[in-house]
Structure formats: C-alpha cells, structure tokens
Amino acid sequence: MHMIKPVSLIIFSMFLSSCSVWEAYTRPTLALPDQYKESAQYQGWKTATPGNPEISEVWWQRYQDAQLTSLLAEANQANYSILVAEANYRQGLALARASRAPQLPAVNGQSAVTRAQSGRDDSTSAYSLGVIASWEIDLWGRIRNSVLSGEANAQATAADLAAVKLSIQSTLAQTYFQLRILDSQKQLLDRTAQSFERSLQLTTNRYNVGLASRTEIAQAETQLRNTRAQAIDITASRAQLEHAIAVLIGKPPSELTLASSPYQQVASITLPPVEASLPASLLERRPDISAAERRVAVANAQIGIARAALFPTLTLGASLGYNSSAIGDLLSLPSRLWSLGPALAGPIFDNQLRKSNTEAAIARYDAAVSTYRQTVINGIREVEDNLALLRILEAESIEQAAAVKFAREAVEQTENRYRAGISEYQNVVIVQSALLAAERNLLTITGRRLNASVALMAALGGEYAENTGK
Fold first, then answer.
1. How far apart are CA 52 and CA 55, in angstroms?
2. pLDDT tens digits for 256-270?
3. Which residues form the signal peptide (predicted)?
4. Longest Cα pair distance anywhere in the chain, in angstroms?
C-alpha cells in the first residue's frame, strides 16, 4: 500500500500531460484579392479550371527546348546551392526525430570503481553496476510543443529546398534565354556586316569611276567597323553568360561550351500560355510562402516551450543495479539495490529569466507573422509585375516588329535610289543604321519577354504544389 500514493500521483500527472499553457497554432489570416489586377488584361493568362494542372510538373518543358531541359536536369542534381539546401533539409528531419525522443523514457547504463580513504583508516574500494531510467511527464506541453516545433521546422526546410530549386531553375532558364538572344544578336550583326561589306564594295566601285567621294568610302568603312566591333563585344557578354550557366550546373567554366544557337526568326519565338488559379493559391503553391508560414508555426510552438518553463517539471526516475565493496560479491542478491519515484522541480528565483524568454518568444512570433504576411503580398506583387510586363512588352513587340518592317522597306528604297545615283550615301547610312537598331531592339524586347515569362512561372510557384501534393 505504501506504493499506491506515488503511483497514483504518476497516473494523475499523465492525465495532466494533455494540458498546455499555450494555444494551438492557427495560420495567420491575410486579406487577399479575388483576382490579379493584370490577369484580365494579359492575353496569355488563363485561369485554371478544376481538374487542370497548374503550370506543369516541370514547367520549363513548356518552352520546348531540349538543351534547356538538359541543363536544368544537371542543375537539379549538381548545383551546390541546392545541395546545401538539401543538407539543411536532412538536418531538419534529424532534429525533428530528436525532438520526439523525450516522449519515451531515457535509459542509461553506468558502472564505476572507486577507491577512498578516510583519515588513518585503511582505504576501501566500491564497485557499482546498473541502469537508470528517467521520464519527464509532459505536464504543460513542453515536449509536445518541442515536437511540433521540430516537425514545423523540418517542413520549413523542405520548403526552403523547393524555393532554392525554383530560384536556381528560373535563374538558369533566364540566363540561357539571354545567351540565345545574344547568339541571335551576333547572327544579326554578322549578317548586317556582310551587307555593309557589299555596300562598301559598291561605294568603292562607284568611287573608282568617279561617281562617289572618298567621304562616302569613309562612311561605309566606319559603319562596317562599328558593326564588327559590336559583334565582338557581344562575345564578351556571351562568355560571361556561359560561365554563369556552368556554375549553375555545378561545373567550372572550362568544362562547359555551348554551341551558338540563335533564333532563326523572332516571329517564331512563342511564349507558353500560363494557366494558374487565383491569388489565394499562392499560399499553397509558393515554397517561400510555405516556408514563412511553417516558421510562424515554429515560433508559436516556441512560445509554448517558453511558457512551460515557468511551471514545475515532474520527472519519474527509476534505477536498478548492484553496489558492493568486493567485486566478487557485486552480482549477488545482497548487493542489489533499486529505486523508483517521482521528482518535482520548479523555479523559485531566476531574476525574470524565464519571463523574459517568454516575452522574447512572443516577439519572435509577431515578427514571423509579419514576415509571412510580407512574403505573401510580395508574391502577389511579383505575379502582378510580370503579368504587367508581359502585357506591355507584347504591345511593344508588335510596334517594334512594325518598325523593323518599315525600316527594311526604307533601306531597300534608299539603296535603290543610291544605285540609281539620285540619293546620297549619307541617306543609305542613316536608314541602314536605323534598321540595325530596330532589329536589335526587337531582339532585346523578345529577351525581356522570355525573362518575364520565366519570372512569372517562378512567381506562381513552379512545380512546388504538385511535387508536395498540396
């Protein structure tokens, strides 16, 4: 009967373990618009209907570029930023498992041999061997909140990994498209230089028969040399982009060479249509938003842990072992000893340490909530930015394509007039320069449209929602 009271206390404490000194976590609310402001104006946007996939499992395949797909496959496996994030995710999983350890008793073994002497008495030896078990009863939810914190942190690191992958993928895609635009610019300049060479030859022939001046030859030479210089300058920018791509796929620049692959016709470049749902879906789709939300859950659980420290802890301890002054008698029945009982410990005076820790935890929670809400509205802004940019660049591209058309017509007519001797060469130089500028500007706009398209894919969350099953 002498064991009934301690056992009853233990059982009663286990019932109390369902108590908590802090409220359960709920995701912070945030008022979101019903639709994107720019979605009604951008023609390439289509709201996804139930049953249709949002984006695609590998969104970059929509661009139908085999080389881009191959590069992204390498980056997903070898990019060092992704590998760092993957290691952090594994660390998060391990810490989550560690947080669950106190849910069960901890059992440790011990053995000792000691020798002591008191005054002039002979020295004595003592031998001990046994096991000790301890189990903290989760009266105030400290252990439960630790588990919740660990699991939420692991989920946040998983979202961090997805966010890093999406960032690397979109950066690589944008860099690759810029490289292809530079290839197209180089092809344009080389082709234009060949045209200018023919113009120079025509002017030289006219000069030889007295129909052109030396000034016209100098103008033709200047135009040709400037164009060649621009073509050379593009190779420097291209080399830097190629080096950047090598680093993104985890290689030194010396190990990657990408053959020139210009777009044959700007008109043939088409952007994939975008199917995505409404702004509220970003809460599930975007990994950075998911990571921020999970860190709010971590901060909430940390408040529970800090609050639990204000109250006493109850630990159930048990030990079983042997203790003897003679090693030969160590494992005998008279040397056996055991103990079982609860221990209650609580703060008496800590100079407001635990209270301050609680206030700090609440402040961290408030900061995490604000960070989450800021991340959400930043995500919506990025979608709106790129929808607006795509809409505006599409209109600009149409106008610029018309400018190229009329510039070509002006070049053709002016060159014919020059050959007929009824126009000065200065007019030829002007219209040829205008055509080159118009064509280069059209390629620049096309590159910006490709970049904005990739940025929109990333702003909508890429493949994250489908891969996580959300």
1. 9
2. 999 999 998 876 678
3. 1-23
4. 131
In the 8-state DSSP scheme, what is residue 218?
H
Both tokens assigned to 347 = 């703060």
Q: Distance between CA atoms of 36 and 33, rounded to whole angstroms?
A: 7
Q: How far is 376 from 393, CA to CA, in rounded Å?
A: 26
Task: Show the tokens assigned to 469.
Answer: 């099953």
Of 324, 295, 400, nearest in space to 125 by CA: 324
CA distances from 200 to 185, 224, 425, 436 (A): 22, 8, 10, 16
3-state secondary structure of 52: coil
> What is d(CA 349, CA 314) in angstroms, rounded to the nearest whole number?
18
**Fold assignment, 19-107+141-312+369-468:** Outer membrane efflux proteins (OEP) (1.20.1600)
Pairing label, strands 313-324, 336-345: antiparallel
Phi/psi for 40 (5° steps) reads: -75, -15
Give the CA radius of gyration of the chain.
37
Give SS3 for 349. coil
The candidate with the shortest Cα–Cα distance to 221, out of 185, 187, 193, is 193
Instruction: Indicate the residue type of 29.
Output: T
Q: Give the residue extent of every domain in the chain.
A: 19-107+141-312+369-468
Render pLDDT for 332-346 as a digit per residue (tens, 0 to 9).
777 788 888 898 888
**Among 436, 95, 140, CA closest to 310:** 140
